[in-house]
Amino acid sequence: MRMSTNIRERLIFSIAGLMLVVFCGSAFAAGVSKEMRAAFTRPAKAPEPADNKSTPARVALGKALFFDPRLSGSNFISCGTCHNPALGWSDGQKTAIGHGMQVLGRATPTVLNTAYQRFQFWDGRARTLEEQAVGPIQAAGEMNQNMDELVAELKAIPGYVSMFDKAYGKEGISEKTIGKAIAAFERTVVSSEAPFDRWLKGDKKAMNQSAQRGFDLFRGKANCVSCHQGFNFTDDGFHNLGLKGSEDEGRFAIKAIKSMKGAFKTPTLRDVALTAPYMHNGTYATLEEVVEHYNRGGDVTENLDPNMRKLGLTKQEVKDVVEFMRALTGKPVSITVPHLPTVN
Ligand code: HEC
Ligand code: HEC
User: Fold this and answer.
1) How far away, in angstroms, is 135 Cα from ligand 2 center?
2) Ligand 1 pocket residue status of 132, Cβ below 6 Å
3) For residue 297, what are the contacts with CB-CB under 8 A and spacing of at least 6?
4) What is the pLDDT of residues 142-158, one digit of tens each?
């Protein structure tokens, strides 16, 4: 017996419908689509420049320099003073405290995952880690060191002479190789696997229900993903979030176009539970306060980023977004502080 086209179509539709329900059901149970997994998975390797490929000797030298207070004018402040591994590679201060206990204008960002960033500093004024590293050494407010003096000091320490030799051979000890070594070390400072990553790989219990709802909100109603994207949760862009009481012009000092006035780089959200307080001026003490800021749509409307608007999140939804950010925080990577080369 021939089915009428009408019945046949209906049959096909209902079978297709059933398959869709089954398919969606299983996709929903798995919670993670292929595309989503691809979008948030760590790249196989952090990018590194051709003239500074990582070697164990370079990383070891960079690590020594990073933790050596003799890199500062006072011989008292190292990179690790402000970027303290025990504090999520930051300092726990609202804004940094530099040479002579000066309180600086901006918060210390973490060095975790800076290897993946297209720009360094809140205003993106350095492009590479090599270029960035030699900045704070010479900045009067930070380490207040004269570069020529530093090079001479390092040349007088036999342990460093041999370490530079192993790491950079003929290139010798210079501003350039100091920057390169520190950058090579920083590329090893990356976030560990977080509950979110395990969940992404299919471990459904790795994130609790609240964090899972938080991830949906993050990509939906709360619209966080318009700026915090990909494995490192940043778009490498600059935005004005309408923070109250900030007079800092941010990116505008580097790129004088109106939309950049008061705009700062989107920071990573990896290990973010470890690095309070938050924002370029350290204005918020907790992640709840940060999400409430977004929920209000910011405070100052002048030059506000077009992606900032009132969100209408309930109290529970705010908690869920915070819970999701906690799930982006892995077990801190253990690090041993190096023994530094001595003059004798
Ligand atoms: C006095 C505290 C202090 C010291 C010492 C210090 N930093 Fe920083 N670091 C900061 C602050 C504050 C910023 C942000 C400044 C800005 O954006 O204008 C920063 C920014 C950075 C960034 C950019 C991170 C990002 O996400 O944009 C890196 C990388 C970095 N520092 C590495 C280093 C290295 C390497 C050293 C040692 C050579 C060092 N810092 C010494 C406070 C410090
Ligand atoms: C318009 C782009 C944009 C949107 C939308 C956005 N962010 Fe941000 N986020 C940024 C920028 C830019 C900063 C740094 C701003 C500053 O310091 O002036 C930031 C800072 C943060 C910080 C502080 C991190 C630190 O290390 O100081 C957290 C936490 C954060 N955002 C979470 C979220 C969450 C959660 C959402 C969604 C509710 C969200 N963001 C939506 C761009 C955005």
Assistant:
1) 25
2) yes
3) 242, 304, 308, 309, 310, 311
4) 999 999 999 999 999 99
